[in-house]
Amino acid sequence: MRLECKVTGGDFQAAGEAAAKLKRTLRQVGIDAETARRAAIVAYEAEMNIVIHAFRGVLSVDISPERIEIVADDEGPGIPDIPLAMQEGYSTAPEHIREMGFGAGLGLPNMKRYSDEFHIESTVGRGTNVRMVINLPSKGSLT
Amino acid sequence: MKVRDVLDMVECTVEAGTSGLDNEVKCGYASDLLSDVMAHARDGDIWVTVQAHENIIAVATLVGLAAIVVAGGVECQPEAARRADEEGIPLLRTRLPAFEVVGRLYAAGVRGRTGS
After folding, report:
1. ipTM value for the complex
2. Is residue A19 less than 8 Å (CB to CB) from chain B?
């Protein structure tokens, strides 16, 4: 099963909709609550990073009996120093976004912490691609 | 304890999400950083914050929170109220500061999660 959502940079009104849709879908196909929670967290953080930092992007999710793969691919400024961006507390979000409680420098660390596999590639001036895998605890939970 | 049991306790008004007033309050969480709430709050928590924009409802929905208490007399944004109604997340507002809200909840038996 594949889900795909377009995400628009700066659109805080629609922010979180893709992650919410994913969580509902996962629960509907019988994924356990804790796994759905982890998937929702990483999807939400990936979605918010596009909203906060990029021009536009696509959040896509592939669900198989063994794993959930979540890919966030954006057109945006890119990340010049990925190890620095991965540090908790480091953020380049502007002040008005921090005031909303975003940009605490926890997004990428949360994505890494709550996924079983985490890959990030970025090209400055072009965009960023984040791929995350969450393994499903028991095989055959999907019909 | 249900969400409706905390209304008088923290002197709040129900701004939206009345359909969730019978949600069970299991524990509590206080933070104004959305990623921090996403990472550490859990299903059934009551969330105390001074954020009052629409994105708090997305966070509450994703985490499965029992209710949101907007403290310090901060005005809830209309879009937040609309979404809280849609999702059935009680959006409570009080003039009391966050520390006082947490203190009253704790005194009534609502605890934070102290494991990892």
Report:
1. 0.84
2. yes
